[in-house]
Write a structure and sequence with these properties.
globular; five-stranded parallel β-sheet; alpha/beta; four-stranded parallel β-sheet; binds phosphoric acid mono(formamide)ester
């Protein structure tokens, strides 16, 4: 495939071939991290700015390490340490970054659509590291990579996503990607957290945990995203945990070979118990490992180095 995109903003924009191409490229980059010298010169001479306007542990560290492993020059900017905190607009900040001959901006921002806004106005590439409740494309790519690696395929698998779907960019990106690659997707959680619009693209909707878990090959649990909620969507955390949490009691509905995933950060004892998060069926830390390879692939393709 001849990769043509200068930006990666949403899984919604990609076709199945593009998604598979990123996953195949990531497979090659995963080998780099297993070598004695974990570095390749693919992005030597390129400059990447990581602009994080919202907090992040995994995504930011993973992008930074991926850029280092590709030999890029890197600048990290956070909201509190930038002139955005003095009232400068996002566009002015980005234009000033671009004026320094930067090749790529990796951005996390709370504003939905902020990446499309910048990508239209900048010559440099823009990669979405999460925009509000819209999309988190590299998280979905690393989730799909992990499913394909562990299960050998995505097409035809039953994948259940449980939790705060309404406020989750991870859920949105996963749903688009998994449907494009032929998985059968179920979303579950309290009815107030379940947007019905996904039914029209073939997603099964469940407001009962038992029904959502039974037959699932992959279970992806999400945290309650309090920072994006503008109303009370359920009575209490304790009640949510007792009805929708994965624990010893509700694990009886889970197939013994089902894979348990979580994008992190985990709220232990709420969406899943520690014993399960750290247990035999969990691939949570493997997701993090795979995130590095996936982000190396995305940086490599979008930078035009391919
Ligand atoms: N999964 C994820 O996006 O985690 P961070 O918020 O720590 O980057």
């Amino acid at each position: 495939m001849n990769w043509k995109r200068k930006d990666l903003i949403a899984i919604y924009d990609l076709d199945a071939e593009e998604i598979k191409y990123i996953l195949d490229t990531a497979e090659e980059f995963k080998k780099v991290s297993g070598r004695r010298i974990k570095k390749v010169p693919a992005l030597r001479g390129k400059t990447v700015v990581n602009l994080f306007i919202e907090p992040s542990t995994r995504t930011r560290t993973s992008f930074e390490l991926a850029e280092q492993r590709l030999s890029a020059d890197i600048i990290n900017i956070s909201a509190s340490a930038s002139s955005i905190s003095k009232g400068e607009t996002l566009l002015d900040t980005a234009k000033n970054i671009e004026a320094l001959q930067v090749d790529l901006i990796v951005m996390r921002h709370w504003a939905v659509g902020s990446h499309y806004f910048l990508a239209k106005r900048l010559k440099c590439g823009v990669i979405n590291a999460g925009d509000g409740a819209h999309e988190h494309p590299t998280q979905a790519l690393l989730d799909m990579f992990t499913i394909r690696e562990k299960k050998g395929r995505i097409k035809g698998l039953n994948v259940t996503i449980i939790g705060d779907i309404l406020h989750s960019r991870v859920a949105r990106s996963n749903i688009w990607g998994l449907i494009k690659l032929g998985a059968k997707v179920t979303i579950g959680g309290p009815a107030t957290f379940i947007p019905r619009e996904f039914e029209s693209i073939g997603v099964r909707v469940c407001d009962n945990l038992k029904d959502a878990l039974e037959g699932a090959d992959v279970i992806n649990l999400l945290r309650i995203q309090h920072e994006r909620q503008r109303a009370a969507f359920f009575p209490s955390i304790g009640e949510y945990a007792s009805i929708f949490g994965l624990n010893d009691e509700t694990m009886k509905y889970v197939k013994p070979d089902a894979m348990i995933m979580h994008p992190g950060p985990i709220n232990r004892g709420v969406e899943l118990d520690s014993k399960i998060a750290d247990g035999r069926q969990s691939v949570i830390l493997e997701q993090v490992t795979n995130g590095l390879a996936v982000r190396m692939a995305v940086l490599y393709l979008v930078s035009g180095a391919a």
